[in-house]
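Before the break, one more example. Copy the sequence into your notebook; we will annotate it together after we see the structure.
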Amino acid sequence: MIETINMLIGLLIYPGLAFSLLVGGIFYWLYRKVRARLQARIGPPWYQYFMDLIKLFSKESIIPYSTRGAVMVLAPIFSLTSLILAAAMMPVGSRSIFGFDEDLIVTLYLLAIPGLAMIIAGNVSESPYGAVGSSREASIMVGYELPYALSALTVGFYLRSLSISTIVRYQIEAGPFFMKYPLATVAFLMCLLPKMGRRPFDAPEADTEIIGGPLTEYSGLLLGIFEVTNGLKWFVIPAFTVNLFFGGGANPIEFLLKCLGIVLFLSVLDIIHPRYRIDQGFRYFFKWILPLALIDFVRSLIWP
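Here is what the structure looks like once it is written out:
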């Protein structure tokens, strides 16, 4: 009984849904605030993201008759579930509640599901905007997922361990991996931009071109679930980055400050770049980012 209660607390409160959504929502607000100030605007209040969620969850979800309704409902649920599980397994500071020996591989799979859910959502909506958005999402995923995975596996293969907690403990003792594998770190950071749907790789959801892309036909509760997933991304993905390359944290405060640094870095990159065409983004990852990831990946295998 006690183990079940601890598991539910880990999934739903800390470090799972509630904690991750609170921190992710604040990080998302900081991104919006920084972008607004650099564009000579005031920006939203800190609670705007949470008020938007309340508004969406209070509205009716309208599902077009021509769509495959069950799949349209399941897509945001799968997306949200994958992020909650990834958040629960993520070490916050040096402590991991649900960590296990191969959780690095599992986390990579879980963090790929939201992108796949977007592809499914756009395809089943039978909207031309959704079809274009899902096609763009599929194209850009082919470009960034391989260097993203290779960069993450670089540190795991160096330690001969696929445990995130082991990776964090090693860095606390021996120093962060970004100093040992700088090329893999750069490649991983660049892959975070399309992973989070930020410029210059936000073509799948380009609101000025294809309205909402894969989410054009979503509304109410279902759109709210996708927005919750978006908020979770703003914590889970920077947290994963900090744990792999920037030493994790000896305590939660240090860990969150490092996550904040990643968020501000990504925010600046988003703000200063125009949107790439989807073919430009695809070529960028295969021409520049994949070779960077491969160099350090091969180094971790033959020259630790």
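Residues 2-200+208-302 form one domain. The chain has a mean pLDDT of 89. Try to locate both features in your own notes.
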